[in-house]
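Duplicate of earlier report; Cbb3-type cytochrome c oxidase subunit III input re-posted below.
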Amino acid sequence: MAQATQAQSTAPLYTVVDGYKVDTNTMQGFRTWRAAACDRCHGANQEGMVGPSLVNSLKTLSKDEFVKTVMDGRLDKGMQSFGTNPTVVQNIDQLYAYLKGRSDGAITRAKVEEIK
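Output:
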């Protein structure tokens, strides 16, 4: 079982079993990814298309930078703002956990299932 921990907390950021079975919060992050149609620009596997690879970006982007980018957008680079999207706003931590798990290599495929 792979786990990543937040620096400011002892609770795991995400929990992954077998590379694709994830905890409830991380599953909600995947659902948010799908609901916001992030794959249109970042690719179905988060490896980039018109937008950059999030698998690579989240290796260096802090959580605060991630949240700012998603909420405010980067209009000069074609990244729209999701700050008025209730699904994204309410699930930003879960979205970060899902994408960070992908970036860290703990989640080995883009489509995940909830741990039963």
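The helical segments are 24-35, 39-42, 54-57, 63-72, 86-90, 92-104.

Merging into the original ticket.
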